[in-house]
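Our preliminary data section would be incomplete without showing what the modeling component actually yields. Below, a chain of 45 amino acids is followed by its predicted structure, encoded as tokens that our downstream tools consume directly.
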Amino acid sequence: MLAHQGGWDEILLVLGPILVIVGLLRLAKRRVTAQQQPPDPPPHE
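Predicted structure:
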């Protein structure tokens, strides 16, 4: 079905997993940096 469609299907087979891994790495980095920041001080009245 997707065999020999001009090369775009092979590109998707390579780029798809790469994009998923990049997205997961960005998500993990965002979580780590959020945990490293000190909590906001309580408001003064």
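The chain has one helix and no strands. The radius of gyration is 21 Å. Preliminary results of this kind motivate Aim 1 of the renewal.
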